[in-house]
From TrEMBL:
GO terms, molecular function: DNA-binding transcription factor activity
Domain named HTH marR-type: residues: 61-109
Protein name, as recorded: MarR family transcriptional regulator
UniProt cross-references to Pfam families, sorted A to Z: MarR_2
Amino acid sequence: MAASRGTSALTKKTHSPAAIDDAVFLGRAVERLSVLIAEQSRIVFDTMGIVIPVRSCSLMTVLATLGAASASDLARELGHSHQLVMQKIPKLLRLGLIQYRNDDHDARRRIFMPTEEGLSQLAKFEQCTVLIREAYAGLFAEVGDVRQFVDRATDALNEKPLDKRINSPA
């Protein structure tokens, strides 16, 4: 007779997985914070009439600074993958915040630039950044400067990656 998959006195757990609030799941915790910030920022944006997607503000800011750029240029400036940038582009086009033209030297390449509406939205976002900075100053007074902590952790992992920090039994 086949062994039952239910719990029995003979069945013993051979391993104990880490609880999801364990440090092993640091990425999950950081992602939860990121999602929470995006959700709460969206509420602020809605109140202020900002239609730029929360997670596309840095892309729009860089694009406005450059004036015109390819997806590769934007990815390089943002420190993101080309794929991530390309995932954001269609929505920005649909919202009328950016436009594009084909590159004169490479027909496969598109050059993106902000529209007048995109620049108008960025002006609203800039007004909002003052309020967001103040809110974060209050948050950081409560919990410590999260941004500096994240930057220090990122720099430390770039200097010495996780695989180099693990003493694996070889």
